[in-house]
């Protein structure tokens, strides 16, 4: 289950309140993929890169983006160094250092980590909830498995071509008879096979993730928003993007609804919100809408989460 939406709308609050609600009859792992972590503060507990139990039935984990990127690049580096002759290893390292800061690397690393988490914990919990970073980012993340598979396919195709080429060259050698013997133990061939198996493993990982993301019975995406004109327009676009990537949107969660009976100021806001919600309904008539009232106090505590959970 994914929770996404604009910055500050209440994704973290609602993701954790949902886990609390589910804990009555199911176990849940809440994963924060937002680099600006605050799940630990929410539960008043030290939380890290492995699951921490914050309530019976609720475990939380904060993905460490720097660690995810380093691990991702280390793997890529190992693969590249194996591909390249020794004297180019320095170049490889230089390239990887640059990659660490280039756009896309962080997303790819995050996605690989999500895929690994599903492999590691998919069987141990009834639900895994992803509390994601603000929208644009997440929509790109959903498109990524396709890109990553295409990239791996491209590499595999190149390998196949160069292997074919080497075979051809060997076939042309005058000592053609010896070739078969050499091939069986040829370290180059062995290396090629190793690389192929690494790339294929990676491709399967992304394919499995894609299959989960596109299976409406296994995965839903909930969009969190406030009842205002611009967030409604953005939600409509976000929904279209997710749907285009084959991701099923389960519900729209409208947070911070103003009360109608607490003075003129809030009543006027409420009226304005009702109009925005009517527009939301016109745009996305088939989606269930859950509404959560604006609270007088901050809701960043376990007790406040219990209260929010009653609206879910
Ligand atoms: N219904 C509510 N009533 C009052 N305060 C709320 C409500 N929902 C959330 N908040 C408060 O709004 C702030 C932002 O909420 P939260 O951190 O859940 O948003 P977010 O979407 O995860 O933000 P970010 O995009 O930065 O990750 C928090 O201080 C939270 O306590
Ligand atoms: Mg958050």
UniProtKB/TrEMBL annotation:
CDD domains the UniProt entry points to: ArsA
Residue span(s) of domain ArsA/GET3 Anion-transporting ATPase-like: 1-311
GO molecular function, one term: ATP hydrolysis activity
Pfam family, one: ArsA_ATPase
Residue ranges crossing the lipid bilayer per the database entry: none
PANTHER family: ARSENICAL PUMP-DRIVING ATPASE ARSENITE-TRANSLOCATING ATPASE (PTHR10803), ATPASE GET3 (PTHR10803:SF3)
Similarity comment text for this entry: Belongs to the arsA ATPase family.
Cross-referenced NCBIfam families: GET3_arsA_TRC40 (TIGR00345)
Protein name: Arsenic-transporting ATPase
